[in-house]
Structure formats: structure tokens, C-alpha cells
Amino acid sequence: MLGKADIAVAVDAFCEALKDCAGVGVYQEMVETISMCGESSPFYNSGVMLWRNSAAVHAFFDEWHKEWLKYKSCDQYAFLRALKSSGLKLEVIPQSYNSGVRFRQNGNSKVKDAHIYHLLDKSKDKENAGRLLNLMNPTAAGPFETAFVRAVNSGLMAENQYQYIARDLHDNEKCSLLIISNGPDYDLWDQASEGNLLYVQGNPGYHFTSQNNPVHYRFGGRVGHWVSVPVPPDNINKPWDFVIVDAPVGHNKSCPGRQIPIAWASQLAQKAIFVHDYERPWERKVCDRYLGTPSRIIDSKSLNNHQLAVFRLKKQASCATPTLSIQSSQGQPVNSLSCPICETSTSAGIFYISIGDLRHDFLRAALESARRMTPELQVHAASDIPLEIPFTWVAPRLGHSSRFYKTQAYSLSPFELTLQLDDDTIIHRPLGDLTSILGNADVAMVQDSFWPTIGCAIAAVKSAHWVCQDELKMMAACGYVDEINYNSGMMLYRKTERMELLFKTWFREWCRFQTTDQFALIRALKITGVNVRCLPLEYNLPFRRHLKDKACILHATAGQKENYLAEYTRSYSLEMPKVDPVYAAFLDCVKKGMRSQYQYEVTGRIINSLHRPKIVVFGCGYDSLFLAKLTNAKGGTAYFVEDQDKWITFAAQRGIENIIKVTYSSRIGELTKGVCVQKQVQAQCEEADLIIVDGPVGGKCSDKGREIPIMLAARSKSQPTIIVYNYERPWERYCCDNYLNRPEHVISGKLAHKNVMAIWCQNRIALTPLLQ
Q: Torsions phi, psi of 704, nearest 5?
């Protein structure tokens, strides 16, 4: 189908040429596209695209993205302009591969001739398409997902704004929430805060149904007029972790405005305040008076452009958790994970990956089967929707999102012993001891029941449109035709260096063609030479009703999903497993520490890359527990050097050991003539693998400054990796220039000009991959 072309698409079924596109998208964009491509140019539909992984295609997608950003409207206009400027080789495929038909109850003559159906009127066509095409009926969504969809459809905020706040609430366990709003989004906040909330309704005229009655309060004031702020009622007047202000109404001068709720929020909120409609002059003026400059402004991705202002309060870090969004460029490995730092764990568990609207029902069925058949095992999932279990909130990607993350599951899984399952599997019988199933092998899998060898697989799929012919030719040319074809829908493995190498190789091999993951897995197995245990078919048995009683794990194929799913459609709440202590300490320092999440992640990755590391940290704080636990988990030792008694006491109360009290004789602006600290500190620095300089304090001219720690780090004979915080300060930068020269990497903090982190790598660790 693709032939010698780089990309293949179909002509739009309703606008076959640009001259037929009157009324489509922004008028100025249409004019620019016609002037560049000509009015007789075909108008391609980008809903179905086939391309090969090549440098030319990568360059085309970059150009397409740039063209789309000009107007942010019609992607098909941008597609034509990018195609014209890039000179990409294009193959036009038949419209049957992108059949834009309307499904009605009496059917459609084009339906039977189409290969791929493209729904036009989605709200009306979905049910009829499912009935006419005999598609499965999805199971009911969970309460969190249902509430999120209801809020997006009926609420006053945009989807990306709801998603941002929901992530914060979800990732701050047992947080308290005060909501001042008139919107019908109560259920979402109730699910995200686990019911620990108070809903204050600013207008009694708004009615909505919820299990808990809202508190009605008639706010005084008027837009544009300052008023005295009354004392909040007793049920409101108490500390709240988060406060959301989206009421009362304030769209014109006759409205009460939001001075009073914003003033209350400034007094009651502990972690963050979210103010909606920040684009309004009065809301912004009130926020400037009571809250100051927002930490972040989130524009609406819908047409109304109502802004959401986020105010992170002092001594609180950004609550964006490491398991949310995973952003990655084409072919780059994922770095922000469910437990993005520590590779070690003492637990065994089941790990699922489920991405895409049509996969959520499979995942719910899989989770229910795991809860019933293996209650002793913890469960974790990577998903693009909120779940009721511990999960990593990932972002869908262009192409095969699930395979992009599946080939990196080693890093995503928080377990030491991982049973990795596709979301369309069902655990049908108790599995028993996973350790005995794996034995002494590195990984255990089942031979594919349909295509037991690579030769069989190549023969079966050689004419399929979804495979890359170049990959098939390469598999045959490399002599893999007689190799066992393992099915990757079930994998059991430990966290070992050999398995880490396998997954890195698997991901690299998959990125070459980005189609089937099993061919890439076979190549990775041959390259790395890991020891594979071939399990009986019962551990990954294709669903057949007459054989299901013999199976431990059932795996549905393309035509079987609706049959097996019908037996597992009920949804149950799941018990939350305990969080790994290193990960818990990481979350705590992200929430309370002075640095950004990314800075903590990079620091953790550096420690994790060292074998039995010895680190010296100048300064104790909220991140000390994380640094100590992560270093101990790697079999190393962390020493903390502190001059203030209050921080020594704070660290000792948290169970931190190896704290050395020092007295500094230095002063900001005055270079010392020699090192004036205890010999114990000098001795530890001489043997350190990593030295972190985050103390003593240096914000005022009268403070001690950090010249001595920087000097000790620079003179260490072990040539450690050195991290210096607050590099943006003139004295810190002067000392670094004097003793260390320019840093190799500089990482900005929460604000671009504050808490800058500078890194010097002297011990030749591979630092660049840790920063990606």
C-alpha cells in the first residue's frame, strides 16, 4: 500500500479539493494554503495515515507541527503546506481506508465496502455504528472516570484545567479541599479528594445533584468596588490544603465578584489556590492584592479562553506528581515514571499498560480478575485516564502509544518481581508463587500459540497492511525464521541489569520500525542473550470457551474480545497498596522542598547511576530523607553537614543518621584564606562520589555563604560529581567560577531565575542520558 512513498493518506470524502473547502477552518489559513498549493490541490484527510519511520518523515512531522501552530485550527490545511514545503513522497490510498460515512439505523451502502470507518457525527453515530458493525458493548466506567467526563461535558472549566487540578488532588493523598463554585463538577472533586471536601455554592439559583448538600453563602461586594472581608463561617474557617475559587459570578459590574472568596483562600489555603476566570480585570486585581503573582497560568484549550491561575504557596513545591505525563520526543525513552528514581523494590506485583479510549473496559476487567484471583499481589498500571488504583498518568502519543510504553515497562514498573500483562488478559485461576514460576531465568514467557516460530509469523502477516515489509525482510535475512516467537502479552521478570539491558535494546529495536513489538523483542533477545524460560501455554492461552478452565491467564485476540469481556463486566473498588518508602520520601520532598520536581529527579538519577554511592550533602532540609533512603537503597551511605541546630533536630526526628555539625567562619563577599571545618568533613569529601552543596544559607550579606563547601568539593581527590544549588546568586556563582569553572549543566528551578541547579561531572558517569 505504501510502496516507495514516505507517507500514504486518502483524499477527504467530502472535500476532494481545496476549492471545495469553503467554510472549513480559519478563512485566512484557507487563503494561505490555496495560494501555496493551488485551489485544485487534493484535500487529504489525516484521520488515517500510513508512514515509515525515516528522517524525511520526522522532518515532515516537525514542519506539520510548525504549520499547525500558525493558526491552531485545521490540521489538514497545515498538512498540505508541510507536504508542499518538505517535498515528501506521497501515496494516495483508496477512500475505503478512510471511509467518512454516516451510520444510521437503516444502514449505509458504503459501510460494507469500507476497510476503516471514520465517524463523522460521533454523538449520533457511535451507537448505530456499534450495532451495525457488531461491536462490543463497553462496561461501565469507574466513578473517577465518570465524574471526570461529566465535569468536562457540563462544567465551567476546560478539560485541560480540570485535568491539572485533578492531578494535584489525586497525587496528594488525604488532602482537604474547599471549593467555592457554582459548577456541576462536585463529583470530580469528591473523587479526587476522596470525599474530604466542602462545597460552597455562591449562587442559590444553581442546582445540581450530589450525595452531599452544598453550603450556600450569599457573597457581598460588587465588581470594581473594594469591601470589608467578613469572617468565614465556622465550617469554612479552618485550614484547607487546596482551595478552588470559581464563584460567585463576576462577568459584569452588577455581579458580586470574587474578592471575599479570594481573600478567604489567602488565609485558609495551605498548599495551593486555583482561581478560575483570571483573565478578567477584577479577578486579576483581587489576586494581585491578596495572592500576588501566580505560579502558573493555564489557558483554556477550548474556545472560551477562560484562564486558570495557580498559586503555589510558600514552602510548598509544585504538586505535579512524577506519574502524570510523560512527555517524550520521537524515539526518546521515558523518564518521568511511577517511581522515577529508585529502581529497587522489595515487592512483587502485576503491571498493566492501557492507553486509548477502546482499552479502558479491558483494563477494568483485567483489574477485577487480578483482585479476585491474586489478592496477595500489588497492582500498578500506566494509563491515560485516572484510576482507582495506584497508576502512572501517561500521555497518549502519536502512533502506537501502548507499545512505546510497553517496551519501556522495566522502568515504569515499581516492582522488583514484575508480572507484566496486556490489558486484554484475564487471570482465570490463582497463579501461585511467581518466584518458582520464573525459576533461575531472567524472563519467563509463553510461545505464541498461533505463530510458534518467526517463520510462521512472517508467512501469516506478510500481506497485512499494518506491518512493515522492511522489518519482515530483515527478520528473514538475519536468520530468525526458526527462532521461537514469544508472545509479549505475558512477561515475568526480575529487576536485574540483564533485564534492564533487554528492555533498552527492545525499545531501541522497536523504534526502528514502530509496528509490531514481538519482532523487536526477538531481536533484543538475540542481541542481549538473556535466559528465557518457556512456560506452558496455560499461562497465556488465547480465549476459547471450551479451553478456559485449563488456563491460568486468558488472552483475547482481535475477534474474541467481546466474548471474554462479557464475563467480567462488573467494577469493584480496589485496595490501595503501600507506597515504596523511597518513592514516598521523593513525593514528600517534591511537595515540601525548595527545588523543582525535575531537579530532584535528576539528583536521584545521578545517585541511582552510582554503585554503592557515598554522598556528602551540605545542608539538611525536606529532601534529606529522600537522599538518605535512596542512597541506602543503592547500598551506599549519605553524610549530612549542617550548622544550624533546628535543622539538625528536624533531620534527626525523621530518622536521618550521619549528621555532622559544623561551624563556618566564612562570610559572603570575603574569600577565606583556608579551609576551617572539622577534619571529619574533609575526610568524607575526599572519598565522596557525589557532593551536594545546598548550605549554609546565603540569601543575605550577613550569611555564611557557600564558599567552603564549594572549595571542599573542588579539592576532593575522588573527583566526585558536584551539584550546587542557588547558582543564580552572585556569590555562589563567583565561588564556583573561582574553584570549579563553568558547570557542564544548569537546570532552572520552579521559577526560571531562582533555585538554579548547576552540575559538574568529574567521575565520567553518563550524565547526559540522566538529564533527558
A: -70, -35
Tell me whether strands 240-246 and 177-181 are parallel, antiparallel or unpaired.
Answer: parallel
Q: In this structure, are residues 47 and 79 in contact, taking their beta carbons and an 8 Å threshold?
A: no
17-52 tens-digit pLDDT:
888 877 677 778 888 888 888 888 999 989 899 998
pTM of the model: 0.39
DSSP letters for 273-338: EEEE-TTSHHHHHHHHHHT-S-SEEE--SSTT---EEEEEPTT------TTS-----TTPPP---S
Cα(191)–Cα(186) distance, rounded to whole angstroms? Answer: 9
CA distances from 449 to 466, 534, 548 (A): 20, 12, 14
CB atoms < 10 A from the CB of 447, how many? Answer: 16
Cis peptide before 294 (omega within 30 of 0): no
Q: Which residues pair with 178 in a beta bridge?
A: 198, 243
For residue 562, give the H/E element and its range: helix 561-565
Per residue in 636-680, pLDDT (tens digit) is 999 999 999 999 999 999 889 999 998 888 888 887 766 667 788
Residue 57 Cα distances to 82, 86, 360, angstroms? 11, 9, 31
Q: Residue-wise over 730-760: b if at least 16 C-beta within 10 A, else e?
A: ebbbbbbeebbeebeeebbbbeeeebbbbbb
Put the strands of the sheet holding 177-181 in their side by side order: 215-216, 197-201, 177-181, 240-246, 269-276, 308-312, 296-298
In contact, 345 and 351? CB cutoff 8 Å: no
Strands of 7-11's sheet in order across: 44-51, 7-11, 90-93
Residue 355: CA atoms inside 13 Å, Cβ hemisphere, count?
20
For residue 449, give every residue at least 6 positions away whose Cβ sits within 8 Å of its Cβ, in sequence order, or none.
Answer: 487, 537, 540, 541, 542
